[in-house]
Fold TetR family transcriptional regulator.
Amino acid sequence: MDVANVPRRRGRPPKAAAGFSETRASLVRAGLVRLTEKGFTATGLDEILKVAGVPKGSFYHYFDSKGAFGTELIDRYGAYFAGKLERFFNDHSRSPLARIEAFIADAEAAMERFAYSRGCLVGNLGQEMGALPEPFRQQLCDVFADWQHRTAGCLRAAQAAGEIGSLHNADNLAAFFWIGWEGAVLRAKLERSGSPLQTFAEGFFTMIRT
Amino acid sequence: MDVANVPRRRGRPPKAAAGFSETRASLVRAGLVRLTEKGFTATGLDEILKVAGVPKGSFYHYFDSKGAFGTELIDRYGAYFAGKLERFFNDHSRSPLARIEAFIADAEAAMERFAYSRGCLVGNLGQEMGALPEPFRQQLCDVFADWQHRTAGCLRAAQAAGEIGSLHNADNLAAFFWIGWEGAVLRAKLERSGSPLQTFAEGFFTMIRT
DNA sequence: CATTTATTAGACGATCGGTCTATTAAATCA
DNA sequence: TGATTTAATAGACCGATCGTCTAATAAATG
């Protein structure tokens, strides 16, 4: 049963094979921007449509609902950062601890680039949970669990390299980091300043080196 | 010029002398509950009105707008916690560090009591800043600054008592605490669990004792 | 009782998320 | 080519809900 042997269907085929569409992609892009800025509830479909230059009718061609759209945004955002963490944490040109520092520096630069107007999509939606459809909860928790797991791996490498005290539990440390880091991102957005990020990062590194 | 000598105005007098009103108070109570749960944007006036058992028309008699209502809620919430911190941090039956631990334990118990459905009003609105009227920003920053200042005082007392290392800067530590603690509250709400609070608190105390 | 003001009641327009039908575009097979 | 089939766009439309406002009512006054 070769895929190539399946007879082509009549009629117009999808624009691209694997569910890809430029229109769809621009909806996702615009959605990510707005949701990192304003969250899910406060963001109307219309403003996303306007930014993306896409008529409303198209939206419901590509997505079943606003909720399904949100689900996809969380997935993409989670995967994007998972990839970013993976890249930083596998950079063997640096020591394990320096990889974490580099990730933080990258995130700080990103927040500054957007004038501290955009936060973390997962943190934003987490804060909104009281007003969000329940299925979002597990999805958001899973993203944090994934990020934490990757971070714990890098911390274990740092431990093996003798960069941080071996009394620490890497999983606890990773949890501590993501709990606090999300707080720092929130605060940086509120104060429009990078100093909360620096304050937290500095404290974190002081802590783990002991 | 005695206040009592001011001639009474004609017409129906206010229900109570000093701007107090049971109706108004119940609006504030209901508002605080909903805003700690769902934030400002996602909370409709109608649901607050319904809980408080107050007709919509009355709301705009007591408050100029939803925004003015929010401003007052932030003030009240900020002052409520300022008082709470003051009580804990002036409790001379405990050591300075134990006072902070007691405050944290109290907050953990409060979150558990509400089944982790309510977060911090200031943190919630901070996250929403992208969608909130600009004047809220300074107000929220000021509340954090106040809480941090009180916390720094207690940390200095702990330093004087030799409970924490003197290399630490108390102001930095207080900033670090509130940055991370808000992250922990957010996460606890998301995961419906107290463990993020415990994870952060434990890490924080480990850190400051060195 | 006429007057004044507190308080309530609900109408109001705007906008929300979501659905719908109609139309246009692009590929197919005969 | 031309009829056919489906992808994709276009935007009118719906009920619900948003925050605001005006008109009416209630309660006190001199």
